[in-house]
Amino acid sequence: MKIFVIILLFVLISQGYSQCSLSDIHVNQSRTGRTVNGKSQWTVYITNWCACVQTNVQLDCKGFQTVEAIEPSLLQVSGDVCLVSAGQPIWKGAIEFNYAWDTQFPLTPISSIVAC
Ligand SMILES: *[C@@H]1O[C@H](CO)[C@@H](O)[C@H](O)[C@H]1NC(C)=O
User: What is the annotated signal peptide range for this record (predicted)?
Assistant: First the structure.
C-alpha cells in the first residue's frame, strides 16, 4: 500500500513537471519611444514560464520586417518563421531584442521542444 502511494505521488509529480507547453512561452513587447530611420523601435521580451527548458522555439514571423538589424544569436528570421536564440534552450530569464518598423508584429510562438 505504501509503495502504491509513493508510485502514485511520483506519477502525479512527474505529470506536473511535464505540463509544460508552448503556451508557457510568453512574448511581450512595447514601444521604446525612439525611432530608427523614421520607424518606431520596439523592445521584445521572450520568457519561458515553465519549470523545464524549451529549445527550438519558433515564432510566427509572417510579414516581419525591421530596419534595425537583430543579432542572429537572438532571433533568426527565415521566411515566415523566426528561430529564437538559435534554437538554444530558453530558461526563465528573458531574451530581449529590439526591432524597428511602423507597426508591431505579434511574433506568436508556433512551436518548441520541451526538455524536462
Ligand atoms: C515583459 O517581460 C519582461 C521580462 O520578463 C518584464 O520585465 C516586463 O515587465 C514585461 N513587460 C510587460 C509589459 O509585461
Answer: 1-18
Indicate if ligand 1 lies below 6 Å from the C-beta of 92. Answer: no
State if residue 47 touches ligand 1 by the CB under 6 angstroms criterion.
Answer: yes
Q: What's 79's domain CATH number?
A: 2.60.40
User: Taking every pair of C-alpha atoms in the chain, what is the biggest distance, in angstroms?
Assistant: 70
- Residue 14 — pLDDT band, cuts 50, 70, 90? low
For the chain, helix (H) and strand (E) counts, in that order, are 1, 7
Number of domains forming the structure of the chain: 1
Pick the range with the lowest mean pLDDT from 24-28, 54-58, 71-75, 91-95.
91-95
Q: Closest Cα to atom 5, ligand 1: which residue?
A: 94
Domain that holds residue 87: 2-115
